[in-house]
């Protein structure tokens, strides 16, 4: 019964490592005592407490695979944010961080659920999708995946090297970037926001019964989810998660 | 000794909101959009609202009939389980009391059902007595699809996922049964003042 589920208690994690991802994004590798595991796509709540007892909470997707020994979250520093500047600029390895989770049972994927998978990300919305890709790689799963990832510029691509590595080793994984604001010299890829034509070219045909996960800012998620339904995707197969500008 | 986050001071925005922010919440000016899937778009000529389940007789209104029902202007603070709160939001809609007037039932719970398959559960007493509406205007404008238009349930005293978007009806039930998010880790009741976010929160 739902009512008897154990409480998601607050735990004190230790920051093991801070990995700069882009100029505005860092990953925090966290050692969480007694962590009982998560499913790819789930998130945690982080709670900060000031000396006078003032608290602030935010949610962050888990970017690491369930198979990894540590929990990784990826944080984009929002200029007028309250929590993200602290996590991105103030925290040091060895610091303690209060969190609880894992949370969320909808935007998740396990290799045994199969595919093909269409993953569509905007900016830091890549984080929960990265957990799925890392989970899939840990299982050496052959489930075919196409990732369409929208970033402002090449320097803003999070996990760029790892994505390249994963795709290079794996004929069943295609990573397609679009760069919406600036493109490096010689860039031959997409250079615009995700639109109908791009999805026509990249997305699996609806007849393949793909599962779609879309994560990013609300305008991207709204547009992509609507376009996928227009393309013939079953609305129930399109799962969305928003990374709004108010994420703080 | 309670936990302190080394070096954290916070950028508080608490002026004028004393007593209005539940624990763990922060104030936003925008209106974030959260939903689990694509935004459904039901044409108004195919939209209806119904009251079904444990009732003497099911009720149903078309969109045109719904707009003829007495409507109320509502100003309330809303609190999303993802931590944002928005103060003094203004809505127009039909009180659930109006929809249930004359309905004979021994039900204690309702399950709101929606386009797109979304559901959420509430005690009947939390949607009656002037506590809940079916809202179709936000800040004087027709409610946009991203925010649940053409009509959404509005139950501002509970976390906002209970204010189901794209609502199409209420099913009256003798027992509480979990809706969509309530089956996926979120609290059965969802009182923001008691911080009932997830399964097992008291």
Secondary structure blueprint with pairings:
The complex is a heterodimer of chains A (248) and B (202).
Chain A: E1 11-22, E2 25-31, E3 43-49, E4 55-61, E5 71-76, H1 84-90, E6 96-103, E7 117-122, H2 126-138, E8 145-151, H3 160-168, E9 173-179, H4 196-202, E10 211-216, H5 218-231, E11 238-242
Parallel strand pairs in A: 7-8, 7-10, 8-9, 10-11
Antiparallel strand pairs in A: 1-2, 1-6, 2-5, 3-4, 3-6
Chain B: E1 26-27, E2 48-53, E3 59-62, H1 63-68, E4 72-79, E5 84-95, H2 96-100, E6 109-114, E7 119-123, E8 133-138, E9 141-142, E10 152-154, E11 167-173
Parallel strand pairs in B: 1-5, 2-11
Antiparallel strand pairs in B: 2-3, 4-5, 5-8, 6-7, 6-11, 8-9, 8-10
Q: Please write the string of helix (H) and strand (E) elements of chain B.
A: EEEHEEHEEEEEE
Strand proportion of chain B: 25-35%
Shape of chain B: globular
Q: Output mean pLDDT of chain B.
A: 95
Named CATH topology of the largest domain in chain A: Rossmann fold
- Assembly of the depicted chains: heterodimer
Q: Provide a count of the helices of chain A.
A: 5
Distance between the ends of chain B: 22 Å
SSE ordering of chain A: EEEEEHEEHEHEHEHE
Q: Quick one: biggest sheet of chain A?
A: 6 strands, antiparallel
Task: Please give the count of helices of chain B.
Answer: 2
What's the name of the CATH homologous superfamily of chain B?
Oxidoreductase, molybdopterin-binding domain
* Average pLDDT metric of chain A: 94
From the 3D coordinates, which CATH architecture of the largest domain in chain A would you assign?
Answer: 3-Layer(aba) Sandwich
Secondary-structure arrangement, i.e. CATH architecture of chain B? Alpha-Beta Complex
Fill in the CATH topology of chain B. Sulfite Oxidase, Chain A, domain 2
Strand pairing plus helix content of chain B: what structural class?
mainly beta
